[in-house]
Amino acid sequence: MPTTANYGWTIPADTDLVKNGAAAIRTLGNAIDTTAAASFGSDLTLITRNSFSNVATVDVDSVFTTTYKTYLIVFEIVNAATGTDDLHFQLRYGTTTQTASYYCSTAVSNHSSSTFTNVNSNNASQYTMASNTENFAGYMYITGVGNTSEYPRFFGNANDFAQSLTLTLGGNVRTTQTYTGFRLKSSSTNITGTVAVYGLAI
Question: Left if phi > 0, otherwise alpha if psi is -120 to 50, otherwise beta: which for 144?
């Protein structure tokens, strides 16, 4: 039987019997399904998904390696015991937490205002992602981690649903290390939530 040019899927020939059409369509559908699963599944790989409850800090270690150049961190939901606490993000190498040289900013848009405000981290001990940690959810891409001693860079978007805020995240750490993980915490109280890390195919 003939096949398609790009993926080699088996397709009916002009001389095939109509009564065999269902089987031919089933064969083609299964081939497409297999190819799609292999293609899409390899582009974004779940490394870990971590749920936590009422803890002071969350360390997500050993997730950045030489396997990928870029990683996606998904903050499915994060809440602090006190919703007005800042949300802090720090990188880790091994069991050591990086506590200096964060140069970052979060641009905050409020649904009731036409102007932006900024949450700045200027040579800080951590990246202050948000000034409220109540129903915080979002994502952040990060590069420059896991492969060698280099400067990490990150960017993304988030929402604080409790305050109806839209957040644009971005920054870097100006200290080279082979960073392998990260820490989440609030400025004063315990946090609860779920965070996932994905690797993006090279």
Answer: left
pLDDT attached to residue 38: 57
Report the C-alpha gap between 68 and 90 in whole angstroms.
20
Residue 113, token pair as written in the block: 């205002």
Query: What residues have CB less than 8 Å from 159, skipping those under 6 apart?
Result: 136, 137, 138, 165, 166, 167
For the chain, what are the domain ranges? 45-200
Please identify every stretch of the chain with a pLDDT value under 70, giving residue numbers as ranges.
Answer: 1, 5, 9, 11-14, 16-22, 24-25, 28-29, 31-42
Rounded-to-integer distance, Cα 169 and Cα 75, Å: 13
CA nearest neighbour of 74 among 200, 186, 190, 188 = 200
In single-letter form, the type of residue at position 42 comes to S
Quick check: helix, strand or coil at residue 36? helix
Q: What is the largest CA-CA distance in the chain?
A: 74
Question: How confident is the model at residue 142, as a pLDDT?
Answer: 98
- Residue 141 near residue 71, CB atoms below 8 Å: yes
Instruction: Identify whether the C-beta of residue 117 lies closer than 8 Å to the C-beta of residue 108.
Output: yes
DSSP 64-75: --TT-SEEEEEE
Q: How far, in whole angstroms, is CA 21 from its chain's centroid?
A: 44
Fold of 45-200: Jelly Rolls (2.60.120)
**Nearest to residue 143, comparing CAs of 167, 169, 101, 172?**
172
